Amino acid sequence: MSEKVAIIGSGLIGQFWSMIFASGGYSVSIYDIDDKQVSKALTLIREKLHLYEQQGCLRGKSSAAEQAQLISGHTDLAECVEGACYLQECVPEVVDLKTKVFQQLDIMLTDTMVAASSSSCLGPSQFAGSMQHRDRVVVAHPVNPPYFIPLVEIVPGPWTAPDVLEKTRAIMEKVGQSPITLRKEVPGFALNRIQYAIINECWDMLKQGILSPEDIDKVMKDGLGPRYAFIGPLETMHLNADGIVDYCQRYADGAYKVCETLAPPPIQYDLDTAGKVLNEFKDTIPLDKIPDRRQWRDDRLAALATLKRQCDAKDKQ
């Protein structure tokens, strides 16, 4: 019998997590307070698994039907959690709600379980500090859509047990995610801190009239994006010279002078600038076409994920 994983919250992220864990062979129980929501989630999961199978981007070694059989729905939290080795909380990003959920989970946790939150900005100390089993709590933050973007940020609280970090990382690697482990809590974790630094400069360029929204996005999707799809900024520095020390000797002074001209954070994402961007998007991505564009994005990410898996397999040969 396969090990059991419990998913708390059956929204979009909970559905993705369910499919990811099922692809790794885990028995998955998914919980929500409303029976109709649970039934809807199970239907959407089955549909997505079969679609991904047809598109050739299904993860794991078993079929869509076999993976769907591993996922069950529950409206009883204790029933969902019972016997699980790992819990993944996926409720909305509201500190009071997360606190309430983890207080409920506290009485169900054992000394061998891991209770992870999908939180994108709330660290464990903000919702789990008063728990008896707080040492079993960690953040495992995915990137949307996590089925195709594998990064997971593992963020400990100041009291999280070392074995919780090790177990979480091992589980993430087993199901094909790409975990990183922060050594301590920091606002925004890693991904959003880097992302906000990029948005900060993009927003300032918009306000100064340096580039149009379309051209700013081109800088990423046709410039930095393709490169960063395979290597990160530090390896880029290393490869763009005779090693990273040589890069710093050549370019550090110039980079410093450019950075002196950057707008100091924080930049306020003001509605006036947002309105101007929205106006420029009205012909290319009007509001009523956002769902279609999201699907287009996910399809492209699925294709990229498949390509990267193929490239990784060749690298290992």
UniProtKB/TrEMBL annotation:
Give the 3-hydroxyacyl-CoA dehydrogenase NAD binding domain ranges: 4-184
**Biological process GO annotation list?**
fatty acid metabolic process
Matches recorded under InterPro entries: 3-OHacyl-CoA_DH_CS, 3-OHacyl-CoA_DH_NAD-bd, 3HC_DH_C, 6-PGluconate_DH-like_C_sf, 6PGD_dom2, NAD(P)-bd_dom_sf
Taxonomy-wise, where does this protein's organism fall, top ranks first? Eukaryota, Metazoa, Spiralia, Lophotrochozoa, Mollusca
- Into which family does the record put it? Belongs to the 3-hydroxyacyl-CoA dehydrogenase family.
Domain 3-hydroxyacyl-CoA dehydrogenase C-terminal, which positions?
A: 188-261
Q: Which UniProt keywords apply?
A: Oxidoreductase
Protein name in the entry: Uncharacterized protein
Q: Does the keyword Oxidoreductase apply?
A: yes
One MF annotation (Gene Ontology) recorded for this entry: L-gulonate 3-dehydrogenase activity
- Pfam families attached here? 3HCDH (PF00725), 3HCDH_N (PF02737)
Q: Which organism is it from?
A: Littorina saxatilis
Q: Which domain of life is it from?
A: Eukaryota
Among PROSITE patterns, the record links this protein to:
3HCDH
